[in-house]
TrEMBL record:
Keyword check for Iron: no
One Pfam short name: Acetyltransf_1
Organism of provenance: Banduia mediterranea
UniProt keyword terms in alphabetical order: Acyltransferase, Transferase
Domain N-acetyltransferase: 7-151
EC supergroup of this enzyme: transferase
Matching SUPFAM superfamilies: Acyl-CoA N-acyltransferases (Nat)
MF annotations from Gene Ontology: acyltransferase activity
Gene3D superfamilies in UniProt: 3.40.630.30
EC number per UniProt: 2.3.1.-
Name of the protein: GNAT family N-acetyltransferase
């Protein structure tokens, strides 16, 4: 069995925008717009990370915070299907949680599709719990689930 090339996780930079945009296209709907991605990569209230296998960006996470709030939000997490199953989602979430704590946040919040069993299982393994059910949350009418984890 051939070993996989090492994957490293680092803070995203403005020049990572195109790769993050390409990853966002993997979502069936409710994607971040190109404009939103470019904006979030340049504002202090957001932070993003990319997972790189050699020069291929195979995962990304965008987190937002608000001044005066102790709740950070995972705005988007995506791992390319060919890179799944190697713990990249966990590594990206851990990077975001570490930064959220540095910013004084005590809780991480996110929304996930009720029908996204893989993502829900990932977040459950990481200690996230149901905070609210959001009927008709997604553009196709799918229910959203707001999950939270306190540090």
């Amino acid at each position: 069995m051939a070993s996989q090339p090492e994957v490293r996780v680092r803070r995203a930079r403005r020049e990572d925008a195109e790769a993050i945009i390409a990853l966002e296209q993997l979502f069936p709907g409710d994607r971040m717009s190109d404009r939103a991605i470019r904006r979030l990569l340049g504002v202090p209230s957001a932070a993003a990370w990319v997972a790189l296998r050699q020069r291929w960006t195979c995962g990304a996470l965008v987190m937002t915070t608000r001044r005066g709030s102790t709740i950070a939000r995972i705005y988007s997490l995506v791992v390319h299907p060919e890179a799944r199953g190697h713990g990249l989602g966990i590594r990206l979430v851990h990077a975001a949680q570490t930064e959220a704590r540095k910013r004084g946040c005590r809780t991480m919040s996110l929304e996930v599709r009720a029908d996204n069993q893989a993502a829900r299982a990932l977040y459950e393994r990481l200690g996230y719990h149901l905070h609210a059910c959001l009927p008709d949350y997604y553009e196709d009418g799918e229910t959203g689930l707001r999950l939270r984890r306190t540090f």
